[in-house]
Amino acid sequence: MGAHIATMAGGADPYGSIPNAALAVKGESIAWIGRAEEAMRAASARNIPQHDVRGRWMTPGLIDCHTHLVYGGNRVAEYERRLGGATYEEIARAGGGIQSTVRATRAASADELRVSALRRARRLMSEGVTTIEIKSGYGLDLGAERRMLEVARGLGRELPVSVRTTYLGLHALPEEYRDDRRGFVDAASGPWLEAIAAAGLADAVDAFCESIAFTVGETEQFLAAAKRLGLPSHVHAGQLRDVGAAELAARYGALSADHLECLSAAGAEALARSGTVAVLLPCEYFMLRQTAPPPVALLRAAAVPLAVATDCNPGTSRMHVDPSRARDGVYVIRLDAGRGARRSDAQRRARAGPRCRPGHTRGRQTRGLRAVGYRPARRAMLCIGRKSLCGRRLRRAAAQRIIRTPVTKTALDAAGLGRLDDYPTFVRDEDCCRPWARGTHGAPGAAQEHRDERFVI
Fold first, then answer.
1. What pLDDT score does 300 carry?
2. Given 56, 99, 206, 425, which residue has the most CB atoms within 10 angstroms?
3. CA atoms of 148 and 20, how far apart (whole Å)
4. 361: phi then psi, degrees, rounded to nearest 5
5. Can you give the pLDDT at residue 86?
6. Listing from the earlier edge strand, what are the strands of the sheet with 129-135?
């Protein structure tokens, strides 16, 4: 009772919102949704228990439709290289990037992978994520890829979250196949794929079709093999260059084409014709300091369905607090707020896989759909605390018009940098946010609109 409900059911209101509403649950399904006054009369007449949520927003569970959640090690050293001017492509060609995570993942036990992945999954869940797509791709041999997919499947059994697994068979060329590209592509597209499909470990496949990864021809061989086995596909497309990957994804009716910073009009039109979802990954774009954002206007003009995801991975998107991704889309790739919120759930159903397509039980709040509710662990999407940046670091952040750690108004005034409201604030440090969730720091009244608790269905 007494909730503001975002149904995401479409219409003039981008959120499908119902003010002062109520939602009735029977078993694990939504039995009724409507105005609170009507619900109160019906509940009182039938002696049905009532719970007043006192004006909180009730939203559908979010779907993170592109993650690399299971991996070993970290790539902290690469951040320093990037600060020194090295590009993602330069680091990858020097044996870093994906290759460094492959070495760490192969060396990690299943339990080590499980423990670290559980921690990341719980962080996403703490922000309202109820469905997660998890890719492999850091094993690059059959044993390690199977281990990653088994761990991912296990997360779905261990946590109250729906998990969809994707075999990212063509992610990078492993070092032992440096002189035998054909041998690797044949193995990944043949016996390895067949073994993973036979074991039921993958809901779909994915491939990185890019100048530093795999060609259109190699990717097509992999997608064709998956199609013969009845597995749908995704494609990492147009991240660094437009090599025709979007058109390939469309030709195979891929569930999604992801990244798409580099995309032609022909590619956008092909995606629209095939119904392939364009998955935008603003955190990765932001972290790599790319200069050309995804062509949102082009995708809209072609009527390509859009989604936004975290791309949680060890190298280019460590910032995996999901609702912030919708806000990042607003600020960084210029999606309006309604589109940003909707791309955090409704369009992702198609991206996450067949079981999450419209008509199934994810991404909306309507009668008959799944209703398992919980409160996210943290209240705030914006964190304003007592911790201050030193003047030098604060001025550096201000130069980009972005403050990425908690900061007080006093610190801004002392540095002569204007009002806190002048800066879009991206808070990424969970340790900084935890005290805010407990209400132990933050100026009274500061950013009050962000302090309301949210209840997720």
1. 92
2. 206
3. 45
4. -110, 20
5. 79
6. 62-67, 129-135, 162-170, 204-209, 233-237, 256-259, 277-280, 306-308
Contact call for residues 72 and 153 (beta carbons, < 8 A)? no
Ordered DSSP codes for 97-122: THHHHHHHHHHS-HHHHHHHHHHHHH
Cβ atoms of 320 and 312 within 8 Å: the answer is yes
Per-residue pLDDT of 117-134, as tens digits, reads 999 999 888 878 889 999
Give the per-residue pLDDT at 34: 87
pLDDT in tens, 251-271: 999 999 999 999 999 999 999
Provide the residue type at 327 as one letter: R
The rounded distance, in Å, linking the Cα atoms of 129 and 344 is 10
* CA distance linking residue 228 with residue 231, whole number of Å: 8
Write the single-letter amino acid at 249: A
Determine which helix (DSSP H) or strand (DSSP E) holds 454, and give its type and residue range: strand 454-456
Length of the chain: 457
First to last CA, the chain: 14
- What lies within 8 Å, CB to CB, of 338 at 6+ separation is 14, 15
CB-CB neighbours of 435 under 10 Å: 16
C-alpha span between 177 and 243 (Å, rounded): 23
Residue 170 has pLDDT above 90, yes or no: yes
Strands 17-26 and 62-67, sheet pairing:
unpaired
pLDDT at 238: 95
Is residue 451 over pLDDT 60?
A: no
The answer to whether the CB of 256 falls within 8 A of the CB of 203 is no
Taking the C-alpha atoms of residue 261 and residue 282, their distance in angstroms, rounded to an integer, is: 10
pLDDT reported for residue 406: 46
245, 251, 315: which is closest to 279 by C-alpha? 245
Strand partners, 21: 3, 35
In angstroms, the Cα distances linking 297 to 330, 336, 398 are 13, 12, 28
Backbone angles phi, psi at 445, to 5 degrees: 85, -15
Nearest-10 crossing angle of helices 98-107, 142-158 = 80
pLDDT score for 247: 98
Own/partner pairs, 437-440, CB within 8 angstroms, 24+ separation:
437/377, 437/378, 437/379, 437/380
pLDDT of residue 328: 54
Q: Quick: pLDDT tens for 323-368.
A: 454 455 545 555 654 554 454 443 444 344 433 443 345 666 665 5
CB 163 within 8 A of CB 194: no
Q: Which two tokens stand for residue 263?
A: 């995309």
Q: State the maximum Cα–Cα separation within the chain, in Å, rounded to a whole number.
A: 75
What is the residue whose two structure tokens read 């600020």?
331
